[in-house]
Amino acid sequence: MQEDETNPNTRRSMIMGLGAAMVGAAVVAPTTATAQTRSSGFQPSRHDVDAWYDELPGNHRVFIDSATATGGAEALLYAFNLTNATRSAYAGEAASMAMIVCLRHFSTPFAFNDAMWEKYGDVFHGLTHMPDPNTNAAPRINLMRAAGYGMNLPNFGNTIDSVRELGVEIAICDAATSFLATQIGASTGSQMNVVYEELKANAVPGRFVSAGVMALTRAQEYGYSLLYAG
Questions:
Q1: Quick one: the chain helix, strand, coil %, rounded to 5?
Q2: For residues 169 and 101, is the Cβ–Cβ distance under 8 A?
Q3: What's the confidence (pLDDT) of residue 27?
Q4: pTM, whole model, 2 decimals?
Q5: Is 192 within 8 Å of 185 (Cβ atoms)?
Q6: Residue 36 domain-assigned (yes or no)
Q7: Contact, 125 vs 106, CB < 8 A?
Q8: Crossing angle of the two packed helices 192-201 and 174-188, in degrees rounded to 10
Q9: Which of 18, 141, 193, 206 has its CA 20 to 30 A from that of 2?
């Protein structure tokens, strides 16, 4: 039987060397991965059209999104509640709100004045399904700018104008405005582009955004907390 020529000391050195290499790999690999993760952190692009997000004064930022009539009404209530709660909770401290209420999708009809509701109330009501509590019929005024309804509407008396006085910015979905113009055109036989321009000329004080869904994502990139009102 031939004697094993492998030197025990050599074998022991190999084992110890492999063990050290494995330990070194276990330590080095996570360090490298962490460095790669840190160096590839995502940073969103900035665009001139979005610069207004940084221009709103306030040291707390909130974007209140709404996509239904009830949601649009509740968004106004939430804007008041947030402002009131901030004043109460941080009394004596410098705490203020940069706040945006977005009217998009089926809350968009609230972005237009009484003249448009008088003229196109039936079309608007077909989308909002929120009747005038006093008549139980299609509204002929913008209920979200009307005083005197109190608890009979989900905004509990907080109107577009009253929250604007608190410093709230109203964002209006331009894509939904185009859709409304199409619906009105089909219902009345009017040209869509004419109705579209009419709606924009009769909007409540606010800011048109290309699409409400895009506005809310951009707002989050600018540090706004998202509050969904429905």
A1: 55, 10, 30
A2: yes
A3: 39
A4: 0.82
A5: yes
A6: no
A7: no
A8: 130
A9: 18
Q: Tokens in use for 187?
A: 């219902």
200 occurs within a structural domain: yes
Per-residue pLDDT of 56-109, as tens digits, reads 999 999 999 999 999 999 999 999 999 999 999 998 788 899 999 999 999 999
Q: Which two tokens stand for residue 189?
A: 């036989």
Question: Residues 6 or more apart from 139 whose CB is under 8 A from it?
Answer: 117, 121, 124, 125, 130, 131, 132
Q: Which residue range forms the structural domain that includes residue 163?
A: 66-228
Start-to-end Cα distance in the chain: 86
| Number of domains within the chain | 1
Residue 37 pLDDT greater than 60, yes or no: no
pLDDT tens-digit readout, 122-173: 999 999 999 999 999 999 999 999 999 999 999 999 999 999 999 999 999 9
Q: Is the pLDDT of residue 24 over 50?
A: no
| SS3 readout for 19-71 | HHHHHHHHHHHHHHHHHHHHHCCCCCCCCHHHCHHHHCCCCEEEEEEECCHHH
